[in-house]
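ERR on first pass: missing label on line 2. Operator R.T. fixed the label and resubmitted. Corrected input:
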Amino acid sequence: MGLKEKILSRSLYVFHLSSGSCNNCDIELLDCLTPRYDVERFGIVLVGSIKHADVLLCTGSSNRLAIPRIKKIYEQMPKPGYVVVWGACGSSRGLFKDSYNTGQPLDEIMPVDVYIPGCPPRPEAIIGGFAKLIEKINAKGKTR
Amino acid sequence: MTIDKILKDLTDKFGSRVLDITKKSDKRAYVNIYPKDIVEFVRYIFKEAGFRFNTASGVDDFDALEIIYHFSHDASGITVSLRAILEDKQDPHVDTITTITRSAWWIERELHELFGIGFDGNADLRRLLLPDDWPEGVYPLRKDFIPSKRDSRKA
Amino acid sequence: MSHRAHIPIGPYHPLQEEPEFYKLVVEGEKVVDVDVRIGYNHRGIEKISEAKSYDQALFIVERICGICSSSHPIACAMAVEDIAGIEVPERALYIRSICQELERIHSHMLWLGLAGHFIGYNTVFMWAWKYREPICDIFETVTGNRQNYAMHKVGGVRRDIEKEHVPYILKRLDEFTKQLTMLKGAVLDDPVLHERLKGVGILTKEDAIDYAALGPTARASGVDIDVRRDYPYAAYDKLKWNVITRPEGDVFAKTVVRILEMFEAVSIIRQCLDKMPEGPIDAKPKDIPPGEGIGQIEAPRGECFHYIKSDGTNSPVRHKIRAPTYMNFPTFRETVIGETVSDATIILAAIDPCYCCTERMLVVDPGDKKVMDVNELIRLSQEKTAKIREKYS
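pass 2 clean. output:
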């Protein structure tokens, strides 16, 4: 396992982005920071800028207004970078796939590493999802 | 204030300009009016009768468009809805009510972009909800707009 | 020389929630104009609803807003019940009230935490969200999920509150009341918060009426409206509680209203659990005749309004949804103009928008090309609090 992966998997910096969601997923994510689930003990930290992030965590049902911005943000993410989509809407646009204001699903805009389904996924699911991401990083042992 | 009182006040003041009344219950009534009388009715019901502006909903009836202005009187728990039918679907427009209450600011923008209804006197009918590159003249909430599978997949 | 700078607020932020875009025009430190561009969250729910049955529409409507996950389905169900004249069984009415009040508590606690974060009280954020967890546990016990409860249907509710759950709910409410009392003292008796929040972002009563503001935003400006009392629905006409209003209209008044409403909500839930009769929970309606119906309920942020038009088939012809934040947002313009940039975040948060759009703020000063990002703006807000705190220490 390379040094980069070893460091990454110990402490993931996450940038969170919503492409137009009902907020539930986002609240459950914030719940992870709070004392009951406390995801910071695993080294997972939310950052304020994509330039500092290792992981782009995306929720929401790909609103048309949001898509160009998501593309830009993904390009700005320093590589190696990983993408996690979270929630039924993030994974496949969910209930809103036939709406006139919904564009392509997120995995057609950028390559996705981990899908965390649920509506909304529980905080335990996000911790599980990150555990899977860390396994993937370690297993791959190579950068994207 | 009771539902009967407000309906009587409206018929006393506006006479035959009250086209039709449907009293659904002691708390709910629908009043049909001409589109050109909207401002006067709204001014009466908001300023003089003291109702609160709830929202305005557009309906596409296939051969005409409807706007329904919903007003509520909190002290008595009554909701009165003023319905105006716009026969001309090609160029529907009514006068703005933002001169009477600023609470209609956003809903007129929304009705304009989703139904294509013009509001004369409202200088700010910019896009509120739809993306800037949404094609002009395409109104999603009209019945002839059906988002195709292809349409909804490409951004 | 004072120059005008345009500050775009939006659309993304790490602490996220729904993205939006506000442009603040600033002269020096003061905000002189605001422009709003929403739509990053417009999912066309009204159009989707026309293609679904009434039962399916309730699931979609639940996901309009994650926090008002109980409010919108109740309003939608009530609109359909209004069309068809359906009588909902009494037990179901009580269960609806319980879900509503639990949601009110969890929403206000969530708000309290976020507001605390914006002004630099991160401990309040952690505490408020931690004390919110028992409410999520109650929801999970009763409905099966922490959010998105799928509890309400046309004609009643889908699941019953079992007898064995009642002692558990009461015990958690007791714990919660203790914790809330502690938090109330910590927040409302703090002189730093008094100075930081009083007189900030005042919404006058006239403006609140002119903009048709709703919920705690209006009640904190002295407008005495509450859908639970004015248009009684569910079991509220059988219960006793107080409507909390404050005359000042500033951010502090809004905080007080929300905290005190939580105590009232706990009292309502206890009364419901006590008075709830046995009986069916579902009226099992068959057909919805043609007609129109309106459902109005008091969500945590204000009045939720649903209008449904039916043509006798199983799908609505038109489903108009008006969330309370739609009426409250424009009041931001009134309250922020004339205030300083460091207060902009907390003023926006005070109307409790269904999106915490204060998240992303970017200050772009065309004059000297300076760019301040959202973290800077929140830092400004937190610094202002720290300066006030120094005075008192």
